[in-house]
Design goal:
Blueprint lengths: L4 E5 L5 E6 L4 E5 L3 E4 L3 E7 L8 H14 L5 E7 L5 E6 L5 E6 L6 E4 L4 E4 L4 E6 L3 H6 L5 E6 L3 E6 L3 E6 L4 E4 L4 E5 L3 E6 L3 H6 L5 E6 L2 E6 L3 H16 L4 H20 L1
Antiparallel strand pairs: 1-2, 2-7, 3-6, 3-10, 4-7, 5-6, 8-13, 9-12, 9-16, 10-13, 11-12, 14-19, 15-18, 16-19, 17-18
Helix pairs in contact: 4-5
């Protein structure tokens, strides 16, 4: 499969411009479109559009499973119906960075946090990735369910803040805040560790547990998880704008609603 011809624009609020050759296709999360050239045709497909041996019922069940990974029931497939190259632009849903990943370089499979998928090539599948260890599911910050992206070609993953990729060798490991892990190779081992002492757990500001990842493979880490950003905005609204007037209280309610919708979408 030929990799997509793309350019990522912007810094904090990024978008992807993909140039499609005639009859070439790409797939994106529902509602992510920014603009398309005239000859681009958009078609909504159930789930990731992949076939099922159980027919329409199987495709619907797969789409429902996909919804549990933080994505929509439907995806948008863009096809260049023209005779010359045409552009499609897909925008990130929140401040942060978009990272392009070649699935072949990750063994054809990538494990991500819920809602990380933004766009990719037609034929890629998004399914559930369950945490097999109970403590990881309960305390790992990502819950029992993550998303598994499999297939070939380019996939675009979005996360908040600034992203850093770390390559781990067979004997390498890394400690990560439980909310900062964005994605990892399927070969990476993921676990949860106690921070060490009661004093550190209570007053260190990092909670009782942190995540550990061990190689071989690659991990992607984000600097500002959405729940941390939401807490900062909420605290600022409560301490500042909510005092002294009805307008301040209405402003606080508005901020809470916006943060809630943003976190629910993740």
């Amino acid at each position: 499969m030929t990799a997509l011809n793309y350019t990522i624009h912007g810094h904090g609020l990024q978008y992807i411009q993909v140039t499609l050759a005639p009859d070439e296709q790409m797939m994106a999360e529902q509602g992510a479109m920014m603009y398309t050239d005239q000859a681009i045709e958009m078609n909504a497909v159930l789930g990731d559009g992949s076939a099922s041996k159980f027919g329409a019922i199987g495709r619907f069940v797969n789409a429902v499973k996909r919804r549990f990974t933080g994505e929509s029931l439907f995806s948008s497939v863009y096809t260049n119906k023209g005779f010359v190259a045409q552009d499609v632009a897909v925008a990130a849903p929140s401040p942060g960075q978009i990272i392009p990943i070649q699935l072949q370089e990750q063994g054809g499979t990538l494990i991500c946090q819920k809602g990380a998928y933004l766009a990719g090539q037609v034929g890629q599948k998004i399914t559930l990735a369950f945490q097999k260890r109970i403590r990881v599911g309960l305390l790992g910050g990502e819950g029992f369910i993550m998303q598994k992206i499999s297939g070939e070609g380019t996939v675009f993953v979005h996360a908040s803040g600034t992203l850093k990729a770390v390559e781990l060798g067979p004997t390498d490991s890394l400690k990560i805040d439980t909310g900062c892990l964005v994605a990892m190779s399927s070969t990476v081992r993921y676990d949860i560790k106690y921070t060490g002492t009661l004093k550190t757990s209570l007053f260190g500001g990092e909670g009782l547990f942190y995540a550990t990842v061990a190689g071989p493979g690659r991990v992607w880490v984000q600097s500002l998880p959405m729940n941390r950003l939401g807490q900062v905005i909420l605290n600022a609204a409560v301490s500042g704008k909510s005092k002294g007037s009805v307008w301040g209280k209405l402003y606080l309610i508005f901020i809470i609603v916006v943060v809630f919708i943003t976190l629910a979408g993740k």
